Amino acid sequence: MLEGKVALVTGGSRGIGRAIALELANEGADVIINYLRHRTAAQNTAEEIRQKGRQAHIIRANVGEPDKIESMFAEIADKFGHLDILVNNAASGVARKAMDLDERGWAWTMDINARAFLLCAQRAVRLMEGRGGKIVAISSLGSRLVMPVYTAVGVSKAALEALTRYLAIELAPYGIAVNAIAAAAVQTEALNVYKFNEKLSKTWQTTSAGRMVQPEDIAKLVAFLCRDESFMIRGQTIIIDGGFSIAPLIT
Amino acid sequence: MPIEIIEDVVRNTVTRITRKDISQFTRTTTFKDLEADSLDIVQILVALEDHFDIEVVDEELESITNMGDFIDYINRKVAEKTARSA
Question: Is the pLDDT of residue A205 over 70?
């Protein structure tokens, strides 16, 4: 249902981004995979996409650096000429309490998680001109719930969700729909940062739905938000958490 | 690429990102000596991967104890890349 579409997934080499890239390819999209450090993983994901009969292209770029974002979109313009879907998934952050945060850690986290969304969206819109498009940002429950050592990331995700609302209204006249997805803890390597906290790990492993959120759960929701059936959903942050946020103590 | 050049780039990158004087960097210096936190280390790896167009595998860093080991590791990765593109 996304045949002929060109999608960019930032942070698309591993984990949630990889699942999203593969799902968009399942639906017929050609996929550009942005990555920062894990080239082999990006190449492997691209190869899986090609095996589905879709085009795949990988671009190394630290989305925390505006000039790298500029270069990435120049490469996309040169290779594909346009863009239909932007999935703002790349994320990073320092795991510290608020009182232990320094300016560097704050800037690193905000630049990659929040500023990059603005800069990527601005450039993506130019490539969507005259054809419309879909923009989906990946957030997390830490934007509204307090989680241990998640301060910087949680705040950056709150900014991302607010920006989603503003972009949704500002870009609607151009035929561009903008939404976000906030997941509870997702079963990926990124969760290892919390492996020291056994109690927390156990809490997340169980939800009312009976399991943790998997990357594929998010990928299918992203694909839905990229299809025309979701036309009237604008500027929303959709929670996908197996019921965790409404009943964290009931499993 | 001569290892001296690689050592020079690693030394400059590590001391710039950890905000330490270049004189504090020797082959026996550790990341702990330089008070490098996890963000410093990520930024060092990103900078070196960018500079040399290599991929550092996090699991392979576990056996690295000091800057000498780190330089040798980066040197090996650069050599592997050169061999692949030859």
Answer: no
